[in-house]
């Protein structure tokens, strides 16, 4: 299985190479999402160290919007252009109205998001999108830019499934599916070919405990149960989706 969204730059994993090595026994690959420029170098170094197993996603997370300026954006674009071949996705980027309540900062988030999606389209890199309490606005931006390589991580916009379908976007499902009816509904409605696995580890908790990338197994079991198919089918299809969407060159 493949965890398409976790955070190996987090203190829990940082410099714990043995722990990351242990994931290799159970997973084909992990994509680690670096949400802040402070972590970009570490993330790419990790990617190099675990070539063909750890893949890098680099972005400017909307939660940190207050810190970012136009210079941050310029530097980001320069960095990504230079490291293009070492990065499988731009993210996480998006809108977060749960943590950011200030109207001006929300406008700034939208401006950044739009610029980042446009940039991704120019260099033809997939994007990994974080949306919290802002689905309508985020979808408006995504649809206006008309870009298909969109991965909606931990997607919870159950009323917008038709748009996900029509635009040929992909979603990833995480441990939240164990407790959220909304997320179960989304998995039931969307065909397997649109679904990938994630944990958002270690941020996402399972029964009060920080999750680990290997917890994609629990997520896959739940998807199999909801869709009334075998675990193996979930594994094979979600792997295929992740490999082709992010163009992963696995080492095996
Ligand atoms: Zn995340």
Topology:
Layout: E1 2-6, H1 17-23, E2 29-34, H2 40-49, E3 54-58, H3 70-82, E4 87-96, H4 103-123, E5 127-132, H5 135-145, E6 150-153, H6 161-166, E7 170-173, H7 181-189, E8 195-197, E9 205-206, E10 209-210, H8 216-227, H9 231-246
Parallel strand pairs: 1-2, 2-3, 3-4, 4-5, 5-6, 6-7, 7-8
Antiparallel strand pairs: 9-10
Helix pairs in contact: 4-5, 8-9
The chain binds zinc ion.
Report a brief summary of the structure:
This protein is an alpha/beta fold. It has a single domain, classed as Alpha-Beta Barrel (TIM Barrel), CATH 3.20.20.140.
Q: What does this 3D model show about the protein?
A:
Helix 4 (103-123) packs parallel to helix 5 (135-145). The protein has one domain: TIM Barrel, CATH 3.20.20.140. Helix content is 42%, strand content 19%. An 8-stranded parallel β-sheet has the order 1-2-3-4-5-6-7-8. It is built from 9 helices and 10 strands. The chain is globular, with a radius of gyration of 17 Å. The chain is an alpha/beta fold. It has helices spanning 17-23, 40-49, 70-82, 103-123, 135-145, 161-166, 181-189, 216-227, 231-246; strands at 2-6, 29-34, 54-58, 87-96, 127-132, 150-153, 170-173, 195-197, 205-206, 209-210. The mean pLDDT is 96. It binds zinc ion (ZN). Residues 5, 7, 33, 92, 200 line the site of zinc ion (ZN).
């Amino acid at each position: 299985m493949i965890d398409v969204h976790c955070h190996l730059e987090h203190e829990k994993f940082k410099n714990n190479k043995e722990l990351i090595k242990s994931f290799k026994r159970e997973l084909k690959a992990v994509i680690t999402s670096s949400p802040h420029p402070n972590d970009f170098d570490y993330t790419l170094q990790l990617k190099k160290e675990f070539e063909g197993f750890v893949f890098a996603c680099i972005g400017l997370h909307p939660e940190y919007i207050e810190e970012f300026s136009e210079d941050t954006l310029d530097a980001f674009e320069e960095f990504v252009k230079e490291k293009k071949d070492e990065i499988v996705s731009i993210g996480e980027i998006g809108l977060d109205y749960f943590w950011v309540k200030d109207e001006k900062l929300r406008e700034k988030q939208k401006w950044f998001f739009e610029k980042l999606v446009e940039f991704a389209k120019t260099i033809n890199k997939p994007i990994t999108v974080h949306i919290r309490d802002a689905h309508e606005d985020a979808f408006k931006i995504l649809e206006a830019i008309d870009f298909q390589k969109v991965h909606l991580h931990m997607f919870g916009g159950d009323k917008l499934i038709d748009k996900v379908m029509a635009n040929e976007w992909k979603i990833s499902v995480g441990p939240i599916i164990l407790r959220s009816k909304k997320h179960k509904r989304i998995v039931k409605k969307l065909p397997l070919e649109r679904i990938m696995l994630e944990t958002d580890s270690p941020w996402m908790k399972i029964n009060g405990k920080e999750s680990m990338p290997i917890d994609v197994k629990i997520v896959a079991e739940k998807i199999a149960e909801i869709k009334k198919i075998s675990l193996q089918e979930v594994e094979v299809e979600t792997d295929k989706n992740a490999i082709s969407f992010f163009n992963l060159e696995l080492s095996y």
